[in-house]
């Protein structure tokens, strides 16, 4: 009746799925056509509208915060972030999305011929390039699945909310974008079904390797799918690394401790440096992002028409892990990043995570670390370079180039705030909450699924 | 040049230290006399004073918050906690300690004849029974070691702030009392010294087993020592348990997700249900705790005399793990607890954690779960029953009976919010942040040190 800490077979089955670039149900080559077909079946339209035309949404008279008349979904408020004290004190203000509920990002898994397959959904999100991308089986806020939308049921939700409907393979709380969300996290769950699973329209079974193939194409696999897939448990191997796990955890603890970050909610109205125009709340200098409104008409979403605010960044992001072999083992250069909305000061991000347009005015030592190394990398050193969309339910045209770049010249002892760790050291941390930010998880999902193989 | 994830010898060395009830340096029987001798050497006096006599501390005119004129140390503010929504909405108000800085609780470790010894300090804290108890090598707020006290240096601090002074054995962020601190956490660090370590007055080398012997006495080992010791890495064994680690983590994630806890700082002045008198800020019904003032005169603290506020609970706490054998393996009944000051909604606590006096007016199904089972337990089922003090730097006369009670009649499928887990499953989680609350860590330190052996 007793069980071992971890099912010893599971990591090997996941590895088999990652190695399978064709599946038992659908050919990889047919997925693009199927997505196009689903796109035609739903005829989505998204239109940018003035903020005043948002239906059910309004700016509070006292605070200027943007919220829905029901008090549900989310609000856009102001955030004042202060780091350090005395001469090293630094402070900024920004709008932030306040959505305290924990959503569910769940992928249903089922064995076909000894190879686990993942049930992916063709899901429309208003902010995504091409609108419809491959998404988790379930991608639901609590409002979604408790029917605040007054729309259709969330399909397959019972596998993730009713214990015993399947076998849990992974289940952890992971942060969303700390620059745009205040202390937002979602459950990232993989559940293996034991019995028959009916496959509804808009759903498809794919192996991890098939999804890896699709991750080599721009804007096909959505952010929510990427973060859940990064949590799939892979075999440990011998686990050798430049630093022991104890050293890695100690470094992380020291980074969390040394950063003194105070994030306080303040009114959106009168937020220093930001103004509200007809079409956007945005910065006077045009940098970072704006808060805009859209109207959406769609067939497959929970309700047929709605309007909502979205955050729209100013330009394409660049998100990259530098990699190098150490003692024959590939390592990634992790960065302990402060983002104002993190639940706990810092999380581990990729080496580089910037929107270059925001830093175009800087030169020399003021340039963000390692950014120019990535932007100017010899193509022969680039192991992966693909554009992906961020959360299309909250962000409009938020896209980043995701890269792995070989950088053997970066020393074993990098600058403060950076540390070399192996991919498996980082994915092991994904069993736990809030170690790795969502951008790092996207890049790790490319390794987990075999989209990238490091040399 | 590469390292394994964890030093494979370390857990066995820690186990040897836990098995050693005598040390290479000091006899266990001599520790009590040594503590008495240190107590006499310092001649501490603590006196209760009216709140108006606090020197350097005052109630802010606008907010009623209690703070120090330098803006350092900590403030006492109000907290409004709301859980649930709609008909299940529950709200309470309480004073809370706001001290956002991360302190260091560090114990220095050194090998004597193949057995790790731990450098313990005889340290005075104004709120502790007998004032002076065995404490970690270093127990310092950031204000302490950056000299806000304008007092003496913190001895041995360099081992914990300068990488490379020793070898890190464990290093994680752990919460303090979530009922009295707002999002407070400290680094819990064990560092093994490689070279000579000078032993100052007030310090003594003890094995884990010696400390375990002392943990069977009331009020000898302080809270900070207990929490650090709970993090000492022990061997895994075969790791068999009623639930796999994956199931345990999934249950914990679900518990964090299902609890909707909103904790907001509000002014201490006018806090509903609380009044400020000459001697205390306390509830009109006399329950829970009060905020009081003390004057302290001491020789061995960083400064020779000071005054400060302390939280004083109303009565002795009862903190207990129920235990039972499952498939021949001892398990503990963990409870997913909401405390208003936790960084993230819930942490795992002991089965029972209450101050019975606060619930004396309740009967039948309104009684706290399992409390009466502990209070009425047959003495033959009690494996451990010892009184320990909570953090004496912030709390006055805050003591709890800590118990392990055998309860084979509790079913394998306990009520929602409770789960059977093995001690090693729980201590493994202590490598990571914020899984186990400080009361659970005290009880786990009794197992780690061999003070309790479960049947």
From TrEMBL, chains A, B:
Superkingdom of origin organism: Bacteria
Family annotation (Gene3D superfamilies): EvaA sugar 2,3-dehydratase subunit
Pfam families: Hexose_dehydrat (PF03559)
Residues given in the record as dTDP-4-dehydro-6-deoxy-alpha-D-glucose 1 binding sites: 57, 141-145, 224, 391-394
UniProt-annotated binding residues for dTDP-4-dehydro-6-deoxy-alpha-D-glucose 2: 179, 274, 337, 353-355, 358-359
GO molecular function: lyase activity
Ranges where the dTDP-4-dehydro-6-deoxy-alpha-D-glucopyranose 2,3-dehydratase domain occurs: 29-231, 246-447
Name of this protein: NDP-hexose 2,3-dehydratase
Native species: Streptomyces albireticuli
